[in-house]
Amino acid sequence: MVGSGSAFTLAGYLEELTAQEFKKFKLAVAEGGPPGSPRARIPRGRVEKADPADLAGLLVTYHGAGGAWRVALRAWQEMGLRRLWELARKEAPPPDAVEAPSGDTSQSGNKASARTGEPGHAEKYRAQVRKKFQVLEERNARLGEWVDLSQHYTRLLLVRGHASPWRREQELLASGGLHGLLREEHRRPIELQTLFDADAEEAGSPPTTVVLQGVAGIGKTTLARKVLLDWAAGTLYPGRFDYVFYVNCRTVEVVAPLSVAELLSGWLEDTGPGSGPAPVPALLARPERLLFILDGFDELLWGPQAQEAGPRVPGEQRQQVDVHLRSLLGKRLLPEASLLITTRPTALEKLQPLLERPWLAEVLGFRASERRAYFDKYFPAPGQADRAWAAVQANKVLFTMCFVPLVCWVLCTGLRQQMERGEAPAQSARTTTAVYVAFLSSLVRPDRHGPPRIPAAGLRGLCSLAATGQRERRLWFRERDLARHGLDAATVSTFLQMDQFQHEAECRATYSFFHSTFQEFFAALFLVMERPRWPFRRPGWGLLLKGPSGLQADLPLTIRFLFGLSSRERADALETMVGEPVPRGSQRVLLRWIREQAAQGPGRAKTLELLYCLFETQEPEFVRRAMGCFREVKVRVRTRMDGLVATFCLRASRSTLAVELDGLGSGAAGLGFQEPGLADQETGTYSLKDICQDLSSGLWVQRSLSELGLGEDALGDSGMRWLCEDLQRPRCPLQSLRLLNCWLTSDFAESLSCALNVSHTLTSLDLSYNPLEDQGAALLFRALEHPRCRLQKLCLKKCHLTEKSCENLGPVLGVSRTLQWLDLGFNVLGDRGVGLLCGGLRQATCQLQTLRLGNCGLTCQCCLDLASVLSLGARLLCLFLRNNALGDSGVQQLCQGLRAPRCRLRELSLANCRLTHACCASISSVLSASNSIESLFLSGNDLEDVGIQELARGLRHPNCKVQELKVQMCGLTRLGCETLALVLSSCPSLRQLDLSNNCVGEEGTKLLGRGLLQPGCRLQSLKLFWAALSEADKAELAAVARAKPGLEISYLSDNKELWLPSTSRIKMARSALGRGALEPRPVDWGPLRRWTRPASTARLWRSLTHRSRPLSRGGGRTCGRPGFFHSLTFAEVFSADFTSSFQ
């Protein structure tokens, strides 16, 4: 059997090739055999679909062992793989050692015949085995449909050793790529070729009994058939076994009385029908050359006489088949023969006492790389496998469960049927629930024409077990748990996995579902079948709706399954499967729950989870009613599946919505999708452009979209031009459009300019973090001059603008009739650019009311221009100049305009402008003017106690109208608190005060408390975050909050924001919620966590709290694509995203 051994060695060399080299090698070997060989050429189709092991077998089959090596060596030499050619040439068999190829069994048959004494029977037997096991009939096959096992088989992962409880738990909870890594990590992978070889790490002889355990649907039967087929082809166990018997334990008639000779004859006829009379005496004379494959030991029905091991039975004596099987397993019958047994883990306890020194391996299903290989073999047409695989990758849950071959088959079958109907896989209705129901049906009723193998009572017990595990946060179950829920052996072996973990001096059998997602699925099925009136509020049921690890999202998979099982189609499928009615009407309960969730204003992550729940139903009418509960939809779309879910739900809506979709670019790039618009139908790509098209076909016509936000996606100029065409439609209802970091350049500006001139509804436009540059901005500003332009709000933060843009924008400000709000922050405009803007602001026709110029590189040189604008009575009401180096001199110049009688400014932000106490006297004079401002933000400046004392003079003046004062991080101590305590009682207009990041201390807290309790104090909100408060200080503030009606005090307690509501609010809350107290609300760390890592956050915070260090020099991340944008500093995040209080 040299040829077969050569095939195994040759396969090892082929696995060393890269994907590109292996492709070239296939082209070379498909041309024909070695020179002068009369053998047939391998069909090109079989070569293209073969993996390294299959291709090695094909080469040996068609060209013989020596010819296969000559073909390979010639191909490697032509490809220039000199090193591989030299190594392989040393292992190539010599010409005189090469036997006939495995396809020509004359020589091997003659050798086997010589041993068995029946000339020609061995080759006939192998031929009949190949004929019977070459084809594989799928579960849903119609008459005449079958697949070639050699071409369809995908290699499975086999490992040795037992996993620890901790490792198994991690595997059960993991998902996506992490799940595949954990399954393969710290395991000993093995190959089929080495199953009966001695273990190099363990001293001892080669095993004669090998047990392959694996859960239902993991591919054990297919693996056993592949072993038999490869042996018959001569590529597996060459020269070791003359005969291999395949015994299907499910079909064995255990009570039939037979002799050993009759039993072997029957098994030979079943395995290789039509091969002729079996040479049983010769086989019994050489038992070491026999292999018995017992497939499905867990399904073997033992007779009453075979329960106890008896003495060795003579071969000629008739006994029941199960007695012979027990003797065969215990090595009392044919002890030298080899056994390969496949079983589910739940039968290991019954199998273990029957065997003598078994060798155990576990079948784990597909490796991560082999999952894609399965799709390639299932879809023969070009491009179909790519589209199907992309659709599965987009669904994290289904991608995780693809390690189970049966799940892969269910997915591929459904996707193939959709392709045959002309549907795109990326837009398939094959939801997660649908796949799990189909998988369940395949296990419960494997024969679609036969009765269910699992009774309805067993299924109910399984669902009850899962629900108990969810409520008690358990993944593992003991045998007493199974008995408590009335589970029979068939149900347990089909759906549960058994592990034996060592506990002190004994081994304990524990049971678990295949994966935690299956436990959540059966828990949801329990809710549907039990039909609780309101499961979300029943005592103890809240934990059932949470993941077993406690680390799941706000809405675990159980709720998603609950929505999917509520659909009519899923209910019909369940009824067909179990043969009993399934309760209906749960959608009313789910709709009420959706309404409650929407009323709470869920965040982006939870909103997306809610949309996923609605998507599982695939019922547009139900989704329409559910979407009517939302007023705005803000989600982060990171994958193509997220986009598909969002558009499905949004298109079903008939209500007016504000929609924000962020994160598309990062998700698409992470999956390696190609650019939008390039053969999307061919590759299954689903990009932001596709989402916009779906929205256009639905929401535009329904006039239900009022606000649209798209962020972090490579929309590109082509996509933007398409979007602009929709903006020009007469029926387009869009009022607000936000496109952040969408890679938009100046090339798109002309299309957008035309849209602004035509749109009758668009009033707000945000294009921040796009490289528009001055050229693109000029085209936008030209649209503002058009009389039909309705734009009122324009945001162009960090768009790479310079003073050139200010030169173009200045005249436009005096012409535009609608523009009232303008943000040019994070652009290097400089003092000259602001001077050019002021030229337009001075125009009497200028309508601008809010101007934001944060982080624009300004100094004191621009303050005179701004002061002149304010003194002329411009309509400007809000001016934001934070994070600019204005200095004391600049603010003193600015105050000249603020004191002017015609100044209308009401809100001024000078945060982090490098100010000291020297400018506070000027600011105080502004506060005492008759047209005093109402909101003043001075955070991040070195004002210290002296500066606060100067400000207090203006705050205590009767003309002062300040309602909000922020002096965070200004170096205040007890003296500053003493001054502010006097201000609280003498400034009746003051409503909000922020003293965060100041060393208030115990004395300062007491002084503030006394001021707050004064009758003249009207303060409603006091913030003391990061103020180094002791427990006594917190108790003091709590007492003040209780005693002062209408006052709210906020500070940090153990890294959480503590909110002390006023007495009146507590009374209102008690009456509304019917409970005794309010729980502290945690601070929302989302924006900070989104931009920085925890370690860098601490370092940045230390730098921020150092008063001598300018805030704008903080570290940060790069926004957009690498090498494109300037660094987004922590100051930008802190001032723009982290909290609105730092202004």
Automatic annotation (TrEMBL):
Catalytic reactions of this protein: ATP + H2O = ADP + phosphate + H(+)
Record's keyword terms, sorted: Activator, ATP-binding, Cytoplasm, Cytoskeleton, Endoplasmic reticulum, Golgi apparatus, Hydrolase, Immunity, Inflammasome, Inflammatory response, Innate immunity, Isopeptide bond, Leucine-rich repeat, Lipoprotein, Membrane, Mitochondrion, Nucleotide-binding, Nucleus, Palmitate, Phosphoprotein, Repeat, Secreted, Transcription, Transcription regulation, Ubl conjugation
Residue ranges annotated for the Pyrin domain, each copy included: 1-94
Cellular component per GO, a single term: Golgi membrane
Domain NACHT positions: 208-529
Any GO MF annotation of the entry: hydrolase activity
One Pfam family hit: FISNA
Record-linked SMART domains: AAA (SM00382), FISNA (SM01288), LRR_RI (SM00368), PYRIN (SM01289)
GO BP: inflammatory response; innate immune response; regulation of inflammatory response
InterPro entries: AAA+_ATPase (IPR003593), DAPIN (IPR004020), DEATH-like_dom_sf (IPR011029), Leu-rich_rpt (IPR001611), LRR_dom_sf (IPR032675), NACHT-assoc (IPR029495), NACHT_NTPase (IPR007111), NLRP_HD2 (IPR041267)
Extent of Polar residues compositional bias: 103-113
SUPFAM superfamilies: DEATH domain, P-loop containing nucleoside triphosphate hydrolases, RNI-like
UniProt-annotated stretches for the region Disordered: 92-124
Subcellular location: Cytoplasm, Cytoskeleton, Microtubule organizing center; Endoplasmic reticulum; Golgi apparatus membrane; Inflammasome
PANTHER family (alphabetical): NACHT, LRR AND PYD DOMAINS-CONTAINING PROTEIN 12, NACHT, LRR AND PYD DOMAINS-CONTAINING PROTEIN 3
Function: Independently of inflammasome activation, regulates the differentiation of T helper 2 (Th2) cells and has a role in Th2 cell-dependent asthma and tumor growth. During Th2 differentiation, required for optimal IRF4 binding to IL4 promoter and for IRF4-dependent IL4 transcription. Binds to the consensus DNA sequence 5'-GRRGGNRGAG-3'. May also participate in the transcription of IL5, IL13, GATA3, CCR3, CCR4 and MAF.
Listed name of the protein: NACHT, LRR and PYD domains-containing protein 3
